[in-house]
Write a structure and sequence with these properties.
Length: about 325
């Protein structure tokens, strides 16, 4: 029987980051036992957890690649459930490809070995749509083949395979959620590791021109961060050990259109800078929510609505 989240002590690995901090807030809002965060602050920010820390969450600024530190934290707080969001930004894999790959594997390996030793009961691991590479068929479901094109994505794919083999061999209660392209408040806006939406917002707010890399026809399936968190907490109750479930908004949109929508909402009427296409860039992500909707009640915000909330947050927080 899986632990109820409203009574379990929970560890969120990478919980000071973008998605992780929103997950921490949601766990506290719905009621839980002690919520503990470990984050090496690679992209995490203490400010992301300001409200959560006021409400009793604990933050360890340590690295989950250190197995002994991780073990000590799990033991000290009698952790029952772990959510693993530790990773390094996709853009970082072009700077330090090996480190970007290894982080995904080492952190999850440490957690799986702790779980195998009985240190905690349930593990929810966050994967990424990047493991699929460019769509070989549309819409993309959970049977889509892995075809990672960056070492970030390769490390994510390797971690997913690790989890499934540990579950198969040792009967662990561990599963995979695979969000597509998240956006929303708190996503990193600072180059060189910024994502396209916050980076474009930041540039326009700073009086700079937005950039389009390549043709701009590359497309993604963007999902608002709180929708990902909501789906994850609902899936926790019903997803089977070893199962992997995609989470998307079924809202495929081109990079050109994304930047145009941001410009429109910010009343930017200037030109855009054209730059060469980034190497190893994915051409298309276009998902189906068939499986997730068969498991839980799931609805998502429209992209325009979510983008409006996102822009409002950056206006309040970075200028």
């Amino acid at each position: 029987m899986r632990e109820e989240l409203d009574s379990a002590n929970i560890l969120v690995v990478g919980g000071a980051g973008f998605i992780g901090s929103h997950l921490v807030d949601a766990l506290l809002a719905q009621g839980s036992g002690q919520v503990v965060v470990i984050d090496n602050m690679f992209l995490g920010r203490r400010s992301n957890l300001a409200s959560a820390l006021d409400k009793g969450a604990l933050l360890y600024e340590q690295d989950a690649e250190d197995a002994l530190s991780l073990q000590e934290i799990v033991s000290r707080h009698n952790i029952k459930v772990v959510f693993n969001l530790a990773t390094k930004a996709l853009n970082y894999s072009f700077i330090e490809p090996l480190d970007a790959f290894v982080t995904n594997v080492v952190v999850l390996g440490n957690l799986l070995e702790l779980q195998r030793a009985g240190a905690f009961k349930t593990l929810c691991h966050f994967s990424s749509s990047e493991v699929y590479g460019t769509a070989v068929y549309e819409p993309m479901d959970e049977h889509h083949p892995y075809n990672p094109t960056t070492t970030y994505a390769g490390g994510k794919a390797a971690a997913d395979i690790m989890l499934k083999t540990w579950v198969s061999m040792f009967d662990l209660d561990a599963f995979i959620v695979r969000p597509f392209n998240n956006y929303g408040p708190r996503q990193n806006w600072e180059p060189p590791l910024a994502a396209i939406i916050p980076l474009t917002i930041q540039r326009i707010l700073a009086g700079e021109k937005p950039e389009i890399h390549g043709s701009g026809s590359q497309s993604r399936d963007f999902i608002y961060v709180s929708d990902t968190v909501d789906a994850t907490l609902k899936l926790y109750r019903v997803i089977a050990p070893g199962q992997e479930v995609n989470i998307s908004a079924e809202g495929n949109i081109s990079m050109q259109n994304v930047i145009e929508k941001i410009a429109e909402q910010l009343d930017y009427k200037g030109s855009m800078v054209k730059k060469p296409r980034r190497g190893a860039d994915v051409d298309c992500h276009n998902a189906t929510n068939g499986l997730v909707k068969s498991l839980i009640e799931f609805q998502t915000r429209s992209f325009d609505d979510g983008l409006g909330s996102t822009i409002a947050w950056y206006k309040d927080n970075i200028i």
